[in-house]
Amino acid sequence: MTFNKPHSKSEKPQALAGIRVIDFSRVLAGPYCTMLLADLGANVIKVENPDGGDDTRRWGPPWLDGESAYFLSINRNKRSLALNFKHPHGIEIAHQLIFQADVLVENFKVGGMAQMGLDYETLHAKYPRLVYCSISGYGQTGPDRDRPGYDFILQAEGGLMSITGPQDGMPHKAGVAIVDVTAGLYATQAILAALRYRDQTGQGQLVDVALFDSQLAWLVNVAQNYLVSGDTPQRYGNAHPNIVPYEVFQTADGYLSLGVGNDSQYKRLCEVANQPTLWDEPRYQTNPSRVAHRAELIPLWQAVFKTRTTDEWLALITPQAIPVGSINNIPDALNHPQAVAREMVQHVPREGGQAVPQLGPVAKLSETPARIEQPPPRLGEHTSAILQSELGYSVEEIAALKAEGVIGGASI
Predict the structure, then answer these.
(1) Which residues, at least 6 apart from 193, have a Cβ–Cβ distance to it below 8 Å?
(2) I need a labelling partner for 343 at 20 to 30 A (CA). Which of 61, 140, 280, 331 fits?
(3) What is the pTM (predicted TM-score) of this model?
(4) How many helices (H) and strands (E) does the chain have?
(5) What proportions of the chain, in percent to the nearest 5, are helix, strand and coil?
(6) What's the topology of domain 246-332?
(7) Which helix or strand (DSSP H or E) is residue 48 part of?
């Protein structure tokens, strides 16, 4: 029997309905990828070690019903199978699941899956239609392939920290594990491309995603600045290396973020702020010239913005179609009227527990919408159901596997 997430007659089918994903990943990049696939309708089976499961289950506080907020953030719409890979029967069950799968996602250290006979070469020979995605710190090739990959270290090695933080201060990391998140996004994109190719040719392939490569790729224009100029990019604090004014300004009662993207916007800013001299000066009338004279121009604007409150400035600037915004804390951002209108916070009921708050899916697909239908699973919550419905095991066989230490979970 195959598992498809139920939907009412009034709900539209999802784009990845019928796609089966076996998820051997844990922590962040891999689970984030498989959550995105699950939101789009894929049947994702999260395979976990019965002894504690995904490491992030213990990464708290805070907690909700005994699960860490970290784990809850990236594991919705999945079912959990607690499986002991050290037992031969555990590997046998893994093969049975993979035989039926369209996609496998793993983020073991390079060579870790090979130790269990679950590496790409072995599985591709047996299951040529399988799309096999390996997410690792440095990729499957290169001199650093065997190194463990941690987001914080990769932000440092990949150049991000060198351009983040105060201009005269210490290098800073981003406030979230952005390398892991973007690697998960790149992996999702590549998996969808590989499925498209598989549909056309019948052949699966290896998707090799490295956190290091991901970090380098999303340096985008900053990296291109270096490639074109040969100059080492510097830290600008909250300012932009190529656009002025484009940074945070202090107001009479707080701060605001301002991004003047072109010369016409700059002219309108001068008009609404009643600062004609800051436009009349030829050195300030074009963006390249403003960049060249940033050191003298920005202090002038800093003095101007301190004359009114943040709300007063927002009321003046926003109608001029100039990008400007308040600097919200996390509660303010999540409760913003736009976030509410876009359903970016949703609450998923959980049987026998509290509803689980979740960030909503980003992409709004008109015909095949992403949906949150299941809360993040308890460790091994679906072990018995998966073995019965997906692989045809009897209740007696499942009990025997439990007694042998092959499987675990609350449902056993």
Answers:
(1) none
(2) 61
(3) 0.91
(4) 17, 14
(5) 40, 15, 45
(6) formyl-coa transferase, domain 3 (3.30.1540)
(7) strand 43-48
The enclosing H or E element of 31 equals helix 29-39
Per-residue CA distances from 36 to 59, 69, 143, 371, 393 (Å): 21, 18, 31, 10, 29
Just list the catalytic residues. 180
Residue 73 tokens read as 């953030």
SS3 label, residue 346? strand
Sole residue written with tokens 């290169």: 142
pLDDT tens-digit readout, 301-349 = 999 999 999 999 999 999 999 999 999 999 999 999 999 999 999 999 9
Q: Tell me, which fold does domain 20-218+342-408 have in CATH?
A: Rossmann fold (3.40.50)
The residue type found at 160 is L
Strand-pairing partners, residue 67, are 64
According to CATH, where is 3.40.50.10540 located in the chain?
20-218+342-408
Location of structure tokens 């490639």: 227
Q: Which uninterrupted H or E stretch holds 81?
A: strand 78-83
Q: What is the CA radius of gyration of the chain?
A: 25
Q: Among positive and negative, which fits the CA dihedral 384, 350, 25, 13?
A: positive
User: CA angle 44-208-112, nearest 5°?
Assistant: 75
